[in-house]
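Example record

The entry below shows one chain as it appears in the dataset: sequence first, then C-alpha cells.
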Amino acid sequence: MLAGAVTLLLVSCPWTSGTDFDDYAGVNLIAGQNFGAADAATGEPWFLTPGLTAATNSDGSGGSGVDYARFERTSGTGAYAPPPDAPGAPVYRLEVVNLFRNGDFEDETFFENQWSEVVAGPSATSFNTTSQIEGTRSLNVQTGDPDDRVEVDLAHPDYGLLGGFREDTLFAFHIDFRIAGSSFTMGLHDGTTNAVSGPWTIVRGSPSEITVFSFPGSGAQDPADQPISNAIYRQGSRTRLSFGGVDADSRRVVNGTFDRLRVVQADRGHYARLPVPYRAAGRPDLMSGGTYTFSIYVAPDPSATDGSAPNRFPARFFSAGLQRNPPLGGVDAEEVLVRTFEGWERVEFQFSGSGLRLDSAGGSDAVLEILLEVGASHLGTTYTDSGSLLVAAPSLTWTP
C-alpha cells in the first residue's frame, strides 16, 4: 500500500545490522502452518475465534450450542479439488452461518409454521412459496390493505434466530426482493399493540418490476436505493420482523417476492485466525517494518448454489487482516469482492509491518495473528453477512 510505504520513509530503520534480506525472498513464513497442518479435522493450527462454535460458546456469552461460523475441511476431489497451482493443498470451507432459519424458504413445512399473517383491513393477505427468485421457493407477499402485514417472531425458540434474539446483541439483516411498487416497509413489531422498532422503508434501485434487488446491497448485486442501516436489535417485546403495514406513518401495500433472508451477529468479527510465532524452524525470524504480503486461493462454494446445503449462501466479500498478538488497537484489514469468482482465484493483501515492533520478541512466542473472514466486518453492517466460500494454500511473505 502506497501510504504504508511513505510512512516507512519517515521512521528509523528497525532492522539489525547484518540482516540479509535475501533470506526472505520468496519465503513463505507460514509454510509450516498450512490449514490442518496440526489437525486435519479441525484445521489447526488455524481456528475460529472462541465463542463462534457450539463447542466454545456454551458459557452463555454467545448462546449455547450454536455454530455462528464454520471452518471445516471439504472433500479433496471433484468440485472441491485444490487450485491447479497448488496441487495437494487441503481445501477448507469458511462460512458465516445464517442465523435466520429457512432463509432460503426451501422448507415449506417449516415455513408454514414460521410465518403468520395479520389481517387488519377488510382484504385478505396472501403469502406463499411459489414464483421463486432462487431455488424452488421464495416468499411471496401481497397485502390487500395498508394495515395488513406478514411476520416472523425472531425470538421464537423453534422458528426464530439460532442462538436467540437477545437484547444485548447487535444483528445485521440482508434480503433480496422483487416488488411491483416502488418500495415496501419492514419493522420489528410487538405483535399485540402498535409498538414498532424501525421501521425501514426500502426502495428499489430502479423502476423495474422484474429486477431482483438486494438490501442493503453491494457486491455484484443490484442494490436497493435507500441509504439506511441494516442493523437491528431487540427492544423488549418487539421481536416480530414484519412486512407490510407496520405503523401509521409507514403503511404500504406490499406486492413482492422475497428470498435469501439472512441475519448475522454484527457486534463481532467472524474470524478464522492463525497465531504466527516470531521464530520457527526452516525460515527466518519475523521482522518489524517492511511489508507483509498475505496471499490465499479463494473459490465459490458449490454447495451454496447447488441445493445440497439448505440455507447456505455464496459469499459476497472476503477479507484478511493482520494484527499484533496480543492485540493493540484495531485489525489492519482489507477486503476483496468474491461474488463474481467462477473458480479458484489467488488474492493478495499487503500490510505494513511498521507497527508490529518485534524488536523485543524472541523464541517461539506468537507475535502476530492472521485473520480471515467471510464478509468485511471492519467496514460495518452492510458488509457483515452470511456466506460461504472455499480457501486453500495460505502464504505470508515479507519484503523490506
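Notes for this example: The first strand starts at residue 47 and ends at 48. Confidence is low (pLDDT under 50) at residues 1-12.
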